[in-house]
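Teaching assistant's notes for section 4

Start the section by putting this record on the projector. Ask students to predict, before seeing the second block, whether LytTR family two component transcriptional regulator will look compact or extended. Collect guesses on the board.
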Amino acid sequence: MENYKVIIADDNADSKEIIAEFIEYLPDFTVVAVASDGKEVIEQVMKHKDVDVVLVDIRMPKLNGVEAIKICKEYVPDLKFIFITGYNDYAVEAFTISALDYIVKPVEAERLYKALDKVRKSSKHTEGISKRIVEDHNKRIIVRNKKLTFYIPIDEILFVEKNGKEAFIHTVEKTYITFETLDSIEKKLTQSFFQSHRSYIINLNKISHIETSGRTYLAYFLRYDKSAYISKHKISTVQQKLII
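Reveal the predicted structure now:
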């Protein structure tokens, strides 16, 4: 049986104790550390970099939970976390930094267990990503413009952007231009890709973080300055594909 390591972060001692007691009933989860403020969250994550999930309050002394997690993710990019808070105000921001879940206090056992089940599924998803990366390695797609034929390694593609009659295939090193349709390009890609917007196809394996932009969302990618749009109708699907 896999054992999942947990850090609990809350400035309220009673809340920490209740959450810890709920977790005791799960044989595959173990609390390895607790924290009472944002700075302690960072310290404990740095000490336990192999932690599977951080259960973190938002309004805490010294540094709030959102800011603490952002700093932690600079050092542990794949860090998984669930916010447990008495406020609804931060839900949108929480999911734009890829929170697994957002629980509003008072915490009930079944609600916590449902959130922790996402940790289990996320672990399986990570294995799936590794498998997809292996599958994508050495595969290429063929696209053409008027004079040239491009052979583009699939695992180098960050996203595809449609602008008028042209489609731009973005990689870290180069952007390829073709007159093929998004539908035509999507059929050549693997399950690592998803059409997030009427004008964009994104590589789920390459996303570093997601930000809000008015009524839509922007996906950012590893080692690349440009972003891709995610429509408000697709954001929940993208989040699910990233964590399940």
